[in-house]
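Here's a chain:
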Amino acid sequence: EFEIAPDGRLIRMVMDIRTPSGKTPAERWRKVVAKFTDDSVMVTIRDSSGTTGRNFATEGALTVPHVSMLYSVIEFEIASSMRRAVAAGARGPLLFRQFYPDRDVGRSFVLHSGRVMPKGEGNVELRHDWLAGAGDVTIDSAGRMLTYSGMRSTYKVEVTRSTELRDIDAIGAAFTTREQQAGATQLSVRDTTRGSVGAANISVDYGRPLARGRVLLGNLIEYDRVWRTGANAATQFTTSAPISLGGLEIATGTYTLWTVPSESKVQLIVNRQAGQWGTEYDRDQDLGTAVLTRETVTTPVEAFTISVIPTEAGHGMLVLEWGTFRWTAPIVVR
């Protein structure tokens, strides 16, 4: 629930968070209340263990919550930023701050940054520091969002404003019924592959999307854009000893793997950041890149699969397979 001031500012939010799969009562239900002033956000969290509060300085920046898949909040970012800019006579990018009320207000807190970039003729570009790429927005004369496209980012959604008030409970019940009838499970299960190459114990933790009849390369996986190389959280690569991967020297530790396929080659990116979501690629933390060897297989692979395969003493292969493509990089223990 949101409370809005007469001038359009967001001044209060109440959020009930229910996670049926949570292991403890505190993980299964929380109520978060946030109050917004010109220079702070005051957050109260209530769960089965009691009530806690946090107060965060915003340094005067417009601050809004980021609620996944709730695009009315993005409209706050755009409309409020543009109103502020007009009032101040500002031009160029308009800055704002945001936080995740369902996870950033626990033991740690991250106040993210973003920019609203007016492009003229009802077009706006939206950039967030947690998202690689940009969102493209169209707005009306009042600054209300009409459409949002994430196709130039790592969070690929298409959103259209609707005048119809949807029955969310009925939609959820229909989804549940269909899933139960089909015996559906999570589409992109999380998996970990492990392998030993010489003295190095290597593991890769990644999401395994299914092909489901889709065209992969050049469509689902766009050419010349960073792909999270899996699904959901970023793909984590851990080695217990120094190695080279595709000729790139890697020290002992945990990294994330990303790829950039094109029509002529596939580039592997090893990034120093780990533990982030798969939309949060930060090129400033790249360790380096390598070119993968490309092959085509005759028997399609339905679930995206990463393997670590020893070949000879101190040598092995990292193998990525999905649909009809097979990408590999040599591993050498140093």
The chain has a mean pLDDT of 87.
